[in-house]
Design goal:
Layout (H helix, E strand, L loop, with lengths): L3 E8 L3 E2 L9 H15 L9 E5 L11 H8 L8 E4 L5 H15 L4 E9 L7 H4 L14 H7 L6 H11 L4 H21 L9 E3 L2 E3 L10 H5 L20 E11 H7 L5 E10 L9 H12 L8 E4 L4 H11 L12 H4 L6 H16 L3 E8 L3 E9 L1
Helix pairs in contact: 1-2, 3-13, 6-11
């Protein structure tokens, strides 16, 4: 089978909710990373076969196929198409998978995969709740088939995060210690300049916005004073949850023929890609079986993996994964995760891939694994080999 290679990966800085990127149109944020990626690489823009973007809640400024709109907003050729993918939080990781599969099939040679999310203007679940009466909680509530199978069990991320914490005997303090470590790692990475190579500063009237603004110094004492998001979920506070934010990311995936045609240097090879699912009521546990499945398919062991990026939707999700896999925490999310650096939904998959690639290059590691929990109880897994 033909192989797929990553030539480049970059991202915008992450703007906190109502922060520096709050008033940037989604198409312009997506265009920012598209334009930078095309300009940095020696492939004529007209030679791109497709643009695949992840995005969730595609309403308002994110509606109308934001992949295509972002490409056009970047001033790129009219001849190149775009399509938008929604696999919930894994949308842009799935975009990378689709790009790699297109290259592996031999039907395309140059594909730009990425994602964008502007959560300041379009909060999480906006599309789900649009036009629904107050108190509406899931898009499945009126489905007879769904109710027959799952009854009235809540499809609720906070319920799932609490349930995971209880099942794996994780205390609120355990979650807060993990969350503090995420912030500490992120602040240390920023101070050391570890993100400098992967971020493309965004121009603003007041000057360039060049670094993530979501990480913050905190203490366990302060975290302990926070109220739960709901009395029914006493262990789940804002401190142990991913932060909402605005960001975009892009990855250039090409074939071996394209490497030769344009004289490109590959930075990584897509070693494995897969997606699996688990119980949608548990909602956030799929990275555990998905990781086991991916390693079996790839003929690998976790000991072969030098770095892991797993999305920190909630602290309990990653702690349960660490406990089940026995993978070292010191090699997982080494520069912090979404609790500190934000979870821009449809952009998170490409954002994590960008960080994983750069971290493998910084550390000299060979194999990196990326996974994340996704709505509906799903999880993508991508294993890359640094070249």
């Amino acid at each position: 089978m033909a192989e797929a290679f990553i030539v480049d990966a970059l991202r915008s800085p992450t703007g906190k909710r109502k922060g520096s990127l709050a008033h940037v149109h989604g198409a312009d944020l997506g265009a920012h990373v598209i334009k930078a990626l095309v300009e940095r690489n020696d492939v004529p823009a007209a030679d791109y076969d497709d643009v695949i973007f992840g995005c969730v809640d595609t309403i308002g400024a994110l509606a109308g196929d934001i992949a295509r709109t972002s490409w056009l907003a970047a001033g790129m050729p009219l001849s190149v198409p775009g399509t938008t993918v929604d696999r919930q939080c894994g949308s842009s990781q799935q975009a990378i998978h689709f790009a790699a599969q297109a290259v592996m099939s031999g039907t395309q040679d140059v594909v730009l995969a990425g994602g964008v999310q502007t959560m300041s203007s379009i909060p999480i679940s906006s599309a789900m709740l649009a036009g629904q009466p107050l108190g509406f909680t899931t898009p499945f509530a009126e489905s007879l088939g769904w109710r027959e199978r799952f009854g009235d069990a809540p499809v609720n991320q906070f319920y799932a995060a609490q349930r995971i914490a209880d099942h794996w005997s994780l205390s609120r303090e355990d979650l807060e210690v993990f969350a503090k470590e995420s912030h500490d790692r992120a602040l240390a990475a920023i101070a050391a300049g570890r993100f400098d190579r992967e971020i493309v500063p965004f121009p603003l009237p007041q000057g360039e916005f060049f670094m993530d603004e979501t990480a913050r110094a905190s203490t366990l004492e302060k975290m302990a004073t926070l109220q739960p998001v709901d009395a029914a979920y006493p262990k789940i506070t804002a401190a142990v949850s991913s932060s909402t934010c605005d960001a975009a990311a892009a990855v250039l995936v090409v074939s071996e023929a394209a490497l030769k045609r344009y004289g490109l240097t590959p930075r990584a090879r897509i070693h494995h890609l897969s997606v699996r699912a688990d119980d949608p009521i548990w909602h956030l546990t799929a990275p555990i079986p998905a990781t086991a499945h991916a390693l079996k398919k790839a003929g690998m062991k976790l000991a072969d993996i030098d770095r892991v990026e797993i999305n920190e939707a909630f602290a309990s999700v990653v702690l349960a994964w660490l406990r089940e896999t026995d993978y070292p925490h010191e090699r997982t999310n080494v520069n912090g995760g979404a609790i500190a650096l934000g979870h821009p939904l449809g952009a998170s998959g490409a954002k994590l891939m960008t960080t994983l690639l750069h971290e493998l290059e910084r550390s000299g590691g060979r194999y990196g694994l990326q996974t994340m929990c996704e709505g509906g109880g799903q999880a993508n897994v991508t294993i890359i080999e640094r070249l």
